[in-house]
Amino acid sequence: METLTKISQKPTPEETSHAAIVHISALSSLIGIPFGSIVGPLITWMIWRNESSFVDENGKEALNFNLSIFLYQFLLLIIGLILFLSPVLSVLATENPDPVSVVLSLPGLWILVFGFGLLSLFRIIMILVATIKAGNGEMFRYPLTIRLVK
Questions:
Q1: 145 in a domain, yes or no?
Q2: Which of 41, 86, 97, 125 sits in a 20 to 30 Å window from 54, CA-based?
Q3: Does residue 115 come out as left (phi exceeding 0), alpha (psi in the -120 to 50 range) or beta?
């Protein structure tokens, strides 16, 4: 809540446009830009952060959210791969395939497929909400965000 008090005046239309661009730039990963969800907000925030406290706070928020989502996706990948591959590798290592091992690998597959899917959908929806809020001159605090950039 402390960041909301730093912005004392209503942002100008230019500031709201820049803040909205900072948020929506995270969707550049959807068009194939590697790490676009982090690079997009980082570059746009660095360009405009000194012009306005509104843009600066929105940039930090967008960057923190996308870094957090990246971290969550990485953790899902590790957990999902461990749960999926450990039973599969044990089947491959033995001469006698065990159908129970294949069934045990399903939670890992669920984590990989549905975990990533739900997290990606959540990310897109939150970015769109934040973009609209910033365009209206309002601050938006992303949920589930680890505040890494202060």
A1: no
A2: 125
A3: alpha
Instruction: Look at residue 63 and tell me whether its pLDDT is greater than 50.
Output: yes
DSSP-based three-state secondary structure for 145:
coil
The pair of structure tokens assigned to 36 is: 């676009």
In this structure, how many other beta carbons lie within 10 angstroms of the beta carbon of residue 47? Answer: 14
- The pTM assigned to this predicted structure is 0.85
Q: Is a pLDDT exceeding 60 seen at residue 7?
A: no
Q: Range of 70's domain?
A: 9-135
Q: Looking at the domain assignment, is residue 2 inside a domain?
A: no
For residue 143, is it within any domain? no
Estimate to the nearest angstrom the gap between the alpha carbon of 107 and the chain centroid. 23
Integer angstrom CA distances of residue 11 from 15, 16, 64, 99, 127: 6, 6, 22, 61, 20
